[in-house]
Amino acid sequence: MPPNQSGTRSILSNMKFSLLILALCSLIAAADPLPSWNHTAPRQAIVAFVEKVTKEGSSDFVPISERIAVFDNDGTLWAEQPMYFQAFFVFDRIKALAPQHPEWKDKEPFASVLRGDMKAALAGGERVLLEMVMATHAGMTTEEFEKSVSHWLITAKHPTTGRPFTEMVYQPMLELLTYLRTNGFKTFIVSGGGIEFMRPWAEKVYGIPPEQIIGSSIKSKYELRDGKPVIVKLPEINFIDDKVGKPVGIHHHIGRRPIFAAGNSDGDFEMLEWTTGGKGARLGMIIHHTDAEREWAYDRESHIGKLIKGLDEAAAKGWTISDMKSDWQTVFAR
Amino acid sequence: MPPNQSGTRSILSNMKFSLLILALCSLIAAADPLPSWNHTAPRQAIVAFVEKVTKEGSSDFVPISERIAVFDNDGTLWAEQPMYFQAFFVFDRIKALAPQHPEWKDKEPFASVLRGDMKAALAGGERVLLEMVMATHAGMTTEEFEKSVSHWLITAKHPTTGRPFTEMVYQPMLELLTYLRTNGFKTFIVSGGGIEFMRPWAEKVYGIPPEQIIGSSIKSKYELRDGKPVIVKLPEINFIDDKVGKPVGIHHHIGRRPIFAAGNSDGDFEMLEWTTGGKGARLGMIIHHTDAEREWAYDRESHIGKLIKGLDEAAAKGWTISDMKSDWQTVFAR
């Protein structure tokens, strides 16, 4: 064999080898459904759980129809600092409507909002937020409300990052939603926030359709306006989808017990307890906000997304804690 | 060419032709998604509607995510005579629990039930039925309730046909549900009956999963019993999914306006009005019980499934009336 031929062969062989390696690498990269999750315990727990429940013939196998996964929204799928994003929406509406409501100047929580003291305005938690929703939305039709949410989201910006709120969603959670759906799961949002506030944008942003969104709500009624059927929002609380309300909301809307649940605050405690308290393989996950640089760091002392019981009991309950700082390679959606 | 060869050819050719016809016939039969619907106006309306909304590029095209179809249950998907099937279930429970409730002897509607006067017991409509549901089910966990429904359905028989209740479902409607789903529709039940009464069996019988069932409900609460999480039924009405309640229930659970609705009584009037009052192609359908031989014949004067407004206004509203006697080749599921 002439030396140059052998050299050519060797080069070709090297090239082939390199190409093979390259192909394998890109295959591995393409096959990784969770590229924003570091190779730490939470990622391993997710993958092990999904492989277990989807493996036919295994004792942990779960039929597709029963692969229900529920996710809290605020602080779990998108950020919630410095306050719930829906609160920015409601506060903007209160300010816009204030001229028609001179009585708000002396009435809480409206007075705090108009003074700019957002922390005081929200001190009462989700119920107070819902009361402000009622005051600012009663009388609107559901179509008008949907339009006002969609319009607000186009123009509103987060006060510290300057990004649209719908961009402040977590990349690892988007990947997790897709990974679960690829494996036959039906993904639901179960939020303390307003059901109608989430529905106009959640399908585009999370791939979760309106009928798979559960949340707090005010009552509404059906009527004819100028002969046209409309559904009108009423100034009356219908349902608070928080804490013990979450399992009840899940049961009412889904009628099945989930096998996967993710949350980030003690408002999600009962949802995780209900989900993981059933028979067979279950996964409960708490997103722990530990990254003050890339996001926010808060838990026990926070005025929003308070997490005490969840941290204290996670180990005993077998729940997985995702530490944003060490477990997430990326935080926000790209 | 020798004559016998030509004869063989001719026989072969005839055989081929027959086989072709046979193949075509079986293809047509296999391709007919609605074999139990006669070739009358309702079938034509259904097919024309589905072809219109699924034809890409057409001005009537509806994306898959918005192809929402809603169906009443009692009298639309299964029979409702001589009384709502859920009433048989509740009456059986009242009789079983009567020894523990001596006060029921003098208290309506329980007294009527115990006297065997079912008509009087149900005179108050769905609200009274729901009150009986509350009285007989409060305190049970949702799991216990589900088991009691499933157990009852195995043994209970319809009083006149002697068939299990879950066999008294309409074959043409099963075909319609499948036809719509094959064309990308998501099918929902929107019933005045109890949401939890339908969920244990509707997936098996109709192919409709629990999370796509909307109905009347009583409240429930989450609690720990012996350290195990349960959801317990409370003696308090949560929601009446009838008449003006149906569009509200649809909005709350689905969050989108359906484009197809089928019902059979004036309890479905607002659901049809809400569905067909939207923009674009819509189909509203009323199942008219006209077949006293194969099923029952009733409308304006019936104590159950009363249909007056629907008949009076269907033409003006553009709704299709399915006359069971002339439009259905088969009534009950085979």
Descriptive notes:
Two copies of one chain form a homodimer. Chain A has 334 residues and is of the alpha/beta class. Chain A has a domain at 36-80 and 168-327: 3-Layer(aba) Sandwich (Rossmann fold), CATH 3.40.50.1000. The first copy, chain A, is 44% helix and 17% strand. The first copy, chain A, contains 13 helices and eight strands. In chain A, strands 1, 2, 3, 4, 5, 6, 7 and 8 form an eight-stranded mixed β-sheet that branches. In chain A, helix 3 packs parallel to helix 6 (126-137). Chain A is globular. The model of chain A has no long low-confidence stretch (mean pLDDT 92). Chains A and B meet through helix 9, strand 3, strand 4, helix 10 and helix 11 of A and helix 9, strand 3, strand 4, helix 10 and helix 11 of B.
The overall average pLDDT of chain A, rounded, is 92
Query: Pairing-aware structural class of the strands and helices of chain A?
Result: alpha/beta
Largest interface: A-B, 37 and 37 residues
Task: Report the end-to-end length of chain A measured between terminal Cα atoms.
Answer: 54 Å
For the CA atoms, what is the radius of gyration of chain A? 24 Å
- Report the count of strand segments of chain A: 8
Please tell me the CATH architecture of the domain at 36-80 and 168-327 in chain A by its name: 3-Layer(aba) Sandwich
What is the CATH first-level class name of the domain at 36-80 and 168-327 in chain A?
A: Alpha Beta
Query: Assembly type of the shown chains?
Result: homodimer
Low-confidence stretches of chain A: none
Largest sheet of chain A: 8 strands, mixed
Helix content of chain A: 40-55%
Task: Identify the CATH homologous superfamily of the domain at 36-80 and 168-327 in chain A.
Answer: HAD superfamily/HAD-like
**How are helices and strands ordered from N to C of chain A?**
HHEHHHHHHEHEEHEHEEHEH
Instruction: Provide the CATH topology of the domain at 36-80 and 168-327 in chain A.
Output: Rossmann fold
Strand content of chain A: 15-25%
Determine the number of helices of chain A (DSSP H or I, runs of at least 4 residues).
13
General shape of chain A: globular
